[in-house]
Design goal:
This protein is of the alpha+beta class and 192 residues long. The protein has 2 domains: 38 residues, Orthogonal Bundle (GTP Cyclohydrolase I, Chain A, domain 1); 135 residues, GTP cyclohydrolase I, C-terminal domain/NADPH-dependent 7-cyano-7-deazaguanine reductase, N-terminal domain (GTP Cyclohydrolase I, domain 2, 2-Layer Sandwich). Helix content is 39%, strand content 26%. It is built from 7 helices and 7 strands. A 5-stranded mixed beta sheet has the order 5-2-3-6-7. A hairpin with a 5-residue loop joins strand 2 and strand 3. The chain starts with 8 loop residues before the first helix and ends with a helix. 23% of the residues are buried.
């Protein structure tokens, strides 16, 4: 990546071509002719989180107790094997007089997931960035499936769940209330 945060796609394509040859493939055969360039373009897209701004500066003055965004899809690449992991992230925060535009939470998740990553750090980084934006509390729950575990090594289909909570979300009753909202949003409406 250069100083502007851009990938050198020509260099990546050249390296992919070399990799194909090292794997015993012929990079000039019909099915592989454009593969190095396609991979370089794909890497520019999926690793775009390094140059993304989370854009959490768009806020609205509003008083509310808790905001929960459920089932934000994420796709990332394991930094250990460079294989995908993906799933859903739930983001909850206690605002301090201002709320974020709804799409901003999705962009925040994209910023941190579209790079070489591990799920534990991804969860922590999203929660920490929310706290830096001045919220009173944040909780982030990530549920992920890891191809580095499914297709190699132990070859197991289990999913991984990670949780990070900060500030007001450290209060057990609030945390349990938010967890119940994430699990079954209608259950909380019945108690109102």
């Amino acid at each position: 990546m250069n100083k502007k945060g851009e990938l050198n796609k020509k260099k990546i394509a050249k390296l992919v071509r070399q990799l194909l040859a090292e794997l015993g493939e012929n990079p000039d055969r019909e099915g592989l002719i454009g593969t190095p360039d396609r991979i370089a373009n794909m890497y520019e897209e999926i690793f775009g989180g390094y140059k993304m701004d989370a854009e959490l500066d768009v806020t609205f003055s509003e008083e509310t107790d808790v905001i929960v965004a459920r089932d934000i899809q994420f796709y990332s690449m394991c930094e250990h094997h460079m294989l995908p992991f993906f799933g859903k992230i739930h983001v909850a925060y206690v605002p301090s007089g201002k709320v974020f535009g709804v799409s901003k939470l999705v962009r925040l998740v994209e910023k941190h997931s579209r790079r070489l990553q591990i799920q534990e750090r991804l969860t922590k980084e999203v929660a920490d960035e929310l706290m830096r934006q001045g919220v009173k509390g944040a909780m982030v729950i990530a549920e992920g499936e890891h191809l580095c575990m499914k297709m190699r090594g132990v070859r197991n289909d289990s999913s991984i769940m990670t949780i990070a909570y900060r500030g007001a979300m450290a209060q057990k009753d609030l945390r349990e209330h938010v967890l119940a909202m994430i699990k079954d949003p209608k259950s909380n409406l019945r108690s109102v």
